[in-house]
């Protein structure tokens, strides 16, 4: 008996369009050239993975490395390597976990906070130009929906990853 497919119902046209739009946004925002331009404008020499980690720490610091990995949807070893590099560069530091003195949490240093502030300022300037014709209420709605979508993605990420791929039919 083969396992049932993870999704037996076809996706709605709305979900298909959302996926298409997100693919376009992801492509535009993750191009190496766009990242290099943003880092040049901000005056910060960091790769994309380091920036993602710094952003997460800035939004919710201080956290244990394992929690950072969960929030970013990456392996803990990836976060450990990034934290080591960022610590050597002076962007983050390790502090004792107040709930468990054996554990450590990661927080931004003043240099790290300045870097993330410059990155965000540069990114917001470009976004402000692109969205200049949008009404404030439209922007509030979009921001709220994006945050809700990301929270739902994170809440369901493990469920989706745990689904077994469809078994291919035997040839014959």
From TrEMBL:
InterPro entries hit by this protein: ArsR-like_HTH (IPR011991), HTH_MarR-typ (IPR000835), MarR/SlyA-like (IPR039422), WH-like_DNA-bd_sf (IPR036388), WH_DNA-bd_sf (IPR036390)
CDD domains membership: HTH_ARSR
Organism: Streptomyces graminofaciens
Protein's name in the database: MarR family transcriptional regulator
Domain HTH marR-type: 15-151
Stored Pfam families: MarR
Record-linked SMART domains: HTH_MARR (SM00347)
PANTHER family (UniProt xref): MARR-FAMILY TRANSCRIPTIONAL REGULATOR, TRANSCRIPTIONAL REGULATOR, MARR FAMILY
């Amino acid at each position: 008996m083969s396992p049932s497919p993870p999704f037996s119902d076809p996706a709605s046209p709305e979900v298909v369009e959302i996926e298409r739009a997100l693919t376009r946004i992801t492509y535009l925002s993750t191009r190496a050239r766009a990242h290099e331009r943003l880092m040049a404008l901000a005056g910060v020499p960091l790769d994309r993975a380091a920036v993602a980690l710094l952003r997460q720490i800035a939004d919710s610091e201080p956290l244990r490395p394992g929690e950072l990995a969960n929030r970013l949807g990456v392996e803990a070893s990836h976060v450990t390597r990034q934290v080591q590099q960022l610590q050597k560069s002076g962007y983050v530091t390790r502090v004792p976990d107040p709930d468990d003195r054996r554990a450590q949490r990661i927080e931004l240093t003043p240099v790290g906070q300045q870097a993330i502030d410059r990155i965000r300022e540069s990114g917001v300037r470009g976004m402000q130009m692109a969205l200049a014709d949008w009404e404030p209420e439209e922007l509030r709605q979009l921001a709220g929906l994006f945050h809700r979508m990301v929270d739902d993605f994170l809440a369901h990420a493990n469920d989706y990853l745990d689904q077994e791929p469809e078994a291919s039919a035997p040839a014959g």
